[in-house]
Structures are given as C-alpha cells and as structure tokens.
Design a protein that fits this description.
By secondary structure, the protein is an alpha/beta fold. Helices cover about 35% and strands about 20% of the residues. The strands form 2 sheets. Strands 2-1-3-5-6-4 form a 6-stranded mixed beta sheet, with helices on both faces. Helix 1 packs across helix 12 (about 270-275) and helix 5 crosses helix 10. The chain binds 2'-monophosphoadenosine-5'-diphosphate. 2'-monophosphoadenosine-5'-diphosphate binds next to helix 7. Its EC number is 1.1.1.25.
C-alpha cells in the first residue's frame, strides 16, 4: 500500500445507521482520492483504547457520533473553540506528531446549509425562535449568536434548561415559555426545530405557524423523514423550508478536507448518494 493512502471513519455505538460512509464514499470516488472511510462500531467501554489506536493504525482522523461525542471531547489532546463551546467533538484530525485535535462542525454545518438554501433569512435582522435546549440547540444558538441575530428565543419543554442556556450565553439569547412557543414566531425571520420531535417514531412538534411572517424560514434539523410534519405544514403555508439532511452534508466538509486534502462540494449528486438513490 502506498503511504499516500488515507484512512478515516466514524466511531459510534451502534453505527450501522450512519450515513457518513455513503457520504464520504461518494466524495472519495468523485475526487479520485486513494483512501477509505469506514464505519467502526466501538462500545463505550472500548472507546478510549480505540481512539488512541487511530494514529498507530495510520488513520488521518475520524468522525465521532453517539454516544462518544462528550468522551471524545475529554480524551483528545486539543480542541478548537467550536468544540470547547459545545463540550462535544464530532470530528478528529490526527496531527503529524500523532496528537489528536477535536472539532465540532455541527454549528458550521447548520449555518452553511441555511445560507445555501435560504440566504434571505439574514437580511431580515429579526428575532429567531429555537425549539429545544439540548446539544443540537447549543450548536445552533452559538452560530446564530455569532451571525449577529439580535434576539434568539429559546423555547424548551423543560423551561429550566432554556433558562440555563440563556444564562450561559447571555444576550442575544432569551428563554421563551414553552406554553407560548407559537407566539415566539411573531416577527421572526427563522424558526429551527432542534429536538427529535417529528422524527420517524416520534410525535410531531406541535407548533401552529399562524404567527410566522410570510417571508419567514422554517428549518428542521430532523432528516428522517426529509419532510417532517412541521416542514409539510410550512410548505402548505408557502413558507421557505430547510430540511436537516443538508446540515449533515455540510458538517462533513471540514473533516473530508482535513483528512483527504480536497475541499469537497455539497450538491444534489451528494444528496442523492446519501439517500441511496444512485
Ligand atoms: P440533542 O443533543 O440531540 O439535542 P438532547 O440533549 O437529549 O439531545 O435534547 C433533546 C431535546 O429535545 C431537548 O430540548 C428536549 O426537551 P427537554 O429538555 O424538555 O427534555 C427535547 N424533547 C425531547 N422529547 C421531547 C418531547 N416529547 N416534547 C418536547 N421536547 C422534547
């Protein structure tokens, strides 16, 4: 094997459902890269050893998924600010001295997909409503605050979590009462569902869209199904919609570029490949 052959993969438990091998596999083929990206099922109790083995096995890096993102944050040698803010790592790069550097590309993936799909959201300079206050919400509110959104309303079923998040970030975040979440749409340029509600096997998010301005954008980070009940309702009202698949595709870019040395493009062909349609 030539020394320029590059290896990467995704560590998770379970990992069989991950679409990352399809995604990176498509890019490897498309750019003619000599390398491979594999799914690596690693039990939580084995994670540290598996991670430490990566440089020894010649891996250029890896992705990390459920349930290892917080453990990866603790175990890597260095983290960048995106990972530090979230306390979670989803992308690891092995440096030439064999140390591990951790990143979190979820926020970047979220924002790049929004900019690519509905750039008009930003022109409005209006409040944004974020549903949920878990790990995905942290990634989303961080990049929205960086993007200069003047007011980020966080509505969460467990109000104390929204309040804790708002206290941690300070302005422009504010905790919004869950029982009044629909009113939080008033005047907004964007609403983002960061919860699992609407995913296959989960109840739909109950959020009447009547108060949403006609030029507002509705973004659901769920991508199974691609059209959640929330996005279907938005489409019926003629609102711009953004689905969660693009976030997955965009968050993968930085890792691919670092491991394989090519800046990849997110487009319709990649989307089809990841959906298993090619
Ligand atoms: P993730 O890291 O994927 O965001 P998480 O930290 O478990 O996962 O957060 C899940 C989010 O979905 C939370 O905001 C959660 O609300 P609570 O903090 O009240 O648990 C939200 N969520 C999950 N199930 C929900 C439900 N049935 N109704 C409303 N919100 C729900």
């Amino acid at each position: 094997m030539s020394t320029s052959y590059r290896l990467s993969g995704v560590l998770g438990w379970p990992v069989g459902h991950s679409r990352s091998p399809l995604l990176h596999g498509h890019w490897l083929k498309r750019y003619g890269v000599a390398g491979a990206y594999v799914a690596l099922p690693v039990r939580p109790e084995d994670f540290e050893q598996a991670l430490r083995a990566l440089p020894l096995l010649g891996f250029a890096g890896c992705n990390v998924t459920v349930p290892h993102k917080e453990a990866a944050f603790r175990l890597v040698d260095r983290v960048d600010p995106s990972a530090a803010r979230l306390g979670a790592v989803n992308t690891i790069v092995v440096r030439p001295d064999r140390t591990l550097e951790g990143f979190n590309t979820d926020g970047e993936g979220f924002l790049r997909h929004l900019e690519a799909s509905a750039p008009e959201w930003r022109a409005a300079g209006r409040p944004v409503l974020v549903i949920g206050a878990g790990g995905a919400a942290r990634a989303v509110v961080g990049v929205l605050a960086d993007a200069g959104v003047p007011e980020i309303r966080v509505a969460n079923r467990t109000g104390a979590r929204a309040e804790a998040l708002a206290a941690e970030f300070g302005r422009p975040l504010m905790a919004w009462p869950w029982s009044h979440r629909a009113e939080g749409l008033a005047g907004s340029s964007l609403v983002v569902n960061t919860t699992q509600l609407g995913m296959d096997g989960w109840p739909a998010l109950d959020l009447p869209l009547d108060a949403m301005p006609a030029d507002g954008v509705v973004y659901d980070i769920v991508y199974t199904p691609l059209e959640t009940p929330l996005l279907a309702a938005a489409r019926r009202r003629g609102l711009a919609t953004v689905d969660g698949l693009g976030m997955l595709l965009h968050q993968a870019r930085a890792g691919f570029a670092a491991w394989f040395g090519v800046e990849p493009v997110v487009d319709e062909a990649l989307r089809r490949a990841v959906l298993g349609e090619e």
